[in-house]
Amino acid sequence: SGKVLLAGGLTSGSTYLASAELYDAGLGFSAAWQPQIASASFDASARLVLTGTGFRGISSASGGNGAQDSPTNYPLVQLRRLGNEQSVFLSPDPATAVSATGFTSAPLAPFSGHSVVTVFANGIPSAARFATGQTILTTRDTDGDGLNDAAEFQLASLGFDMNLSQPALVNAMFSNLNLAQPNLNGAGYYTASQIQALNIGTPLLMRNPANGQFKLTIGMEKSTTLQNFTPFPFLAPQTSVNGQGKIEFLFTVPDNAAFFRLLPQ
Fold first, then answer.
1. Quick one: which H or E segment has residue 169?
2. What local confidence, expressed as pLDDT, does residue 135 receive?
């Protein structure tokens, strides 16, 4: 709304304050002119749909060519992600008319997390409203490669991208797992968080009782079929320890579809 909320704080005597104050920055507009957002949601086509009032303001801006006036009477709609402060102004959907009570954006790329949306009409901002990122659906296949968005989002650690068509990668997984939907846990694949909670086969850390030293041994294997895996060795020239004390292994893969797995050795 343009107002500033001050909450808590300390006095000069270092006494904690349990109070709040609302400061009006004085943007100088009538409350009747301010656009209001009643609802903000994403539809099945990944468009942000807004309802409310005052979206067209009380006058129109000019997009004229000098001799003629071509009013561009639609609002500016800003979407700002709370997780990283990324901000974008949304274009209206060309197939849906903008009205004083409704705005539909052009389709957006899927994202997760929470955002706030603000409507500006005649330079006057609405109060911001929460908008939750599009639901990543099992019924939607954005990139058209045969694997739904929800599955590709969950399998991102294996190289899947729901915005990038990867038919060779998808076909390799389906043909060898022979499942209607992928269940990589059942095939022996785990997310990073699952690996941290599991002790698969050989322990990752081995202790030498003679000298008390611990040894961490990890090997990597490669497969293009998800059935037969061959060792993919960490070679000395490509393996290093970075400034954070973490091991880095740089390599290139000529295969069109390849899977990798880390195993305790």
1. helix 167-177
2. 60
Determine the pLDDT at residue 122.
82
The pLDDT of 212-218, averaged and rounded, is: 81
Q: Count of alpha carbons within 13 Å of 118, Cβ hemisphere only?
A: 16
Distance CA 155, CA 82 (A): 24
Residues in the chain: 265
| Pairwise CA distance, residues 78 & 14, whole Å | 39
- Contact between 222 and 258 under an 8 Å Cβ cutoff? The reply is yes
Q: Is-contact 57 29, C-beta < 8 A? A: no
In degrees and rounded to multiples of 5, residue 174 shows phi and psi of -65, -40
Examine the pLDDT at 73 and tell me if it is beyond 90. no
Q: Is the pTM of this model over 0.90?
A: no
| Ramachandran angles phi, psi of 39, nearest 5° | -150, 150
> Does the CA dihedral 145-148-152-153 come out positive or negative?
positive
- Mean of per-residue pLDDT scores for the chain: 79
Q: Are 261 and 219 in contact (CB under 8 A)?
A: no
User: DSSP 3-state assignment of 168?
Assistant: helix
Q: Rounded distance, CA 141 to CA 46, Å? A: 12
Query: In 3D, which of 40, 2, 5 has the Cα closest to residue 132?
Result: 40
Do residues 149 and 46 make contact, with C-beta atoms less than 8 angstroms apart?
no
